[in-house]
Amino acid sequence: MIRLAPLTDEKHVTLELKDLLDSGVSLYVQSGLHVYSEWLKSRGYVFRTMDDLYEAAEDYEDLFGRIAARLLSDASGNCLYLYIGYPYDLTEVLIAEAEKAGVAVEILPGVSDSSLAFPGQRVDCSFAATGLPDTFNPALSYSISEVDSFLRAAALKEALLEYYPAELEIRIASFSQGKYASISAPLYELDRQGNYDPTCIVFVPAVPFEKLERFGIGDLEYVMDRLRAPDGCPWDKEQTHQSIRNDFLEESYEVADALDRNDLDSLCEELGDVLMHIVFHASIGRQYSEFTFRDIVTDIVRKMVFRHPHVFGSAVVRTSDDVLANWDRLKKEEKHYSGVSDEMKRIPKCFPGLLRSRKIQSKAAKIGFDFDSPESALKKVHEEADELFQAMQEGRGQEEEYGDLLFSVVNVGRLLHLEPEELMQKSNEKFIRRISEMESMSHERGMELSQMDVEAQDELWEKTKNAHK
């Protein structure tokens, strides 16, 4: 039997723990350097510490494994381990190893350090600074023990600042002269105290949502639920999947615009707007029992794992092209496509025309239905241009032939590995810039551009064109 209990001062030892100590049980203490170990020595209790393991271990996983091995190797088979703070990570390792060895593990109750250090304070969650959680919930209060160095305090501060305001008042306590003494300090000064030792404990109070300065996805879900609550925002409550469709598209285009401008501040903002719409749809979906945000995340995680067997499985790929080929094969398997036409039909019709054309042509190329070079595709452009000219002469079929011409132009760009939609936008911008320069030139001549004849406008056009060569 291995028993675990918190290391505390003599005044707060439980009767059960006192009886165990007096029974001569094989005793281990996390650290002989801790002040609480002094009273054990003064009462003649003989114990062995884990200080040497702390010095020898490469990391905490290695340390917990070494501690578990030492406790399990105790010749008596009946030992007591007094820990500092909260042994959750150690307990997980110890229980797993003890089960293999057929040894029982029991965690004894005791008075926690946080109760002694911060009497009267509600503590929702406690852990040691040696094993910080992946996330914090500001709605809960925390007690973090074993803040025994400046580096540990700095790491804790950095983790907390992701969630809490820098000015948040926290409490820092250490054991001195037989009792805990605490001070208050703003969070940003957590690593500036200079009194760190194994007894140092930090208390972080719960913070109301309205006072937070940084937020996570759960906070965004809360905001959306609040907006759509019966007493929320009238507009948000009325929306449906279809009513916010165009807004979602606009926000997506604004993300693309921020990328084109390489404006990272705008990119961050616009990505937030897109994320808000995803959460918006999730809120609507949950209201009508269609799907939830967790369903959305579950679907994409499953998809990414399935389509990356070279990362999450045993498949082997050597190049990015191999990855794309594998992705395409797995997508067909996942979507149950019966042929290339099925794939083409699944390309969203709401895509910009040039983009959709390029994707349709790429699907056709994968089955070999393609031009053998950009030059041969360009010949097709000339053919389509002639057919459009003929249709114009005949006064019929112009729409179809014009569409065919655009489709053939996209083919040339695809074979040149160019993005038609992107380049079309660049040409639009170039045209706007040249018209702006032509207007400036016409103003220098005391005229409006619209007042100039075609020959004069062509002259200005050529000047702006040559100026950028």
Can you walk me through this structure?
The chain has helices at residues 15-22, 36-42, 51-56, 60-72, 88-101, 113-117, 150-161, 217-227, 234-238, 245-260, 264-287, 293-306, 309-312, 320-335, 340-345, 353-365, 374-394, 398-415, 420-444, 454-467; strands at residues 2-6, 26-29, 48-49, 79-83, 105-107, 125-128, 142-145, 169-176, 179-186, 201-204. It is an alpha/beta fold and 469 residues long. The protein has 4 domains: 2-111, 3-Layer(aba) Sandwich (Cobalt-precorrin-4 Transmethylase, domain 1), CATH 3.40.1010.10; 114-211, Tetrapyrrole methylase, C-terminal domain (Methyltransferase, Cobalt-precorrin-4 Transmethylase, Domain 2, 2-Layer Sandwich); 217-291, Helix Hairpins (Orthogonal Bundle); 421-467. The strands form 2 sheets. A 5-stranded parallel beta sheet has the order 3-2-4-1-5, with helices on both faces. It is elongated. The model has no long low-confidence stretch (mean pLDDT 88).
